[in-house]
Amino acid sequence: QGKFTLLRDTRTDGSFLVHHFLSFYLRAGCKVCFVALLQSFSHYNIVAQKLGVSLTAAKERGQLVFLEGLKSCLDLLFGEKEEQSGQPSPLQFISERASNLKALFDFIRTSLTPAGGDSSKGPVLLVDDLSVLLSLGATPVAVLDFIHYCRVAVCSQLKGNIVVLVHSSEDSEDEENELVVNSLCHHSDLILWVEGLATGFCKDVHGQIKIIRRLSLQLMAEQDHVQIYQYKIQDKNVTFFARGLSAAVL
User: Fold this and answer.
1) What confidence tens digit (pLDDT) does each residue in 166-186 have?
2) 3-76+86-192: which CATH topology?
3) For the chain, which residues make up each domain, given as ranges?
């Protein structure tokens, strides 16, 4: 509890980790607020069904709060601002000059604050993917402030967990995105860094994952613990193995 996990992908797609954490926390009975900025609800629901979880059922019983970023953006940009609750849209900053993510933070805090008869376990905030906020016009400082407030509210006050996906590239000219990624790396308790193979595409090895446990954040001042595995994504699961030990090689 109280952990911040950063999912980082370079030269490949790390969204399989988002699907894993979403289904994992829902099966564990946690209250999940999913800020989905990259894909539609139906996309996540189809993948979740393959993993044995129904997002529709989770929404109906109040366990899953789903913010469909694509739909919210279109509603804001094309003037369909009909808010049933009278509250501003969580992505209100798109239509305002000020890059202020307060409305999004308020939406998350309200969604995850336990109600009287709520029997869910620790709350979880899942964001896919944070880089989209920069593309929508938010400044790096606003994004980092937003994550800081989320960590205080979710990790410290509510004793929950945060899982965030960001895209990165070593040779990228997007300085704002790299600033956000590097800053988040310094604050994360656990980093799962998915990378494409340096040698190019391989049908039996889809990439490698670097698992960095940030022991240096704790008082003992130990060195970070790093493990590196290669993986192959299959229809309903992912196979991990030591580097150079895939089934195709052996």
Assistant:
1) 999 877 778 999 999 999 999
2) Rossmann fold (3.40.50)
3) 3-76+86-192
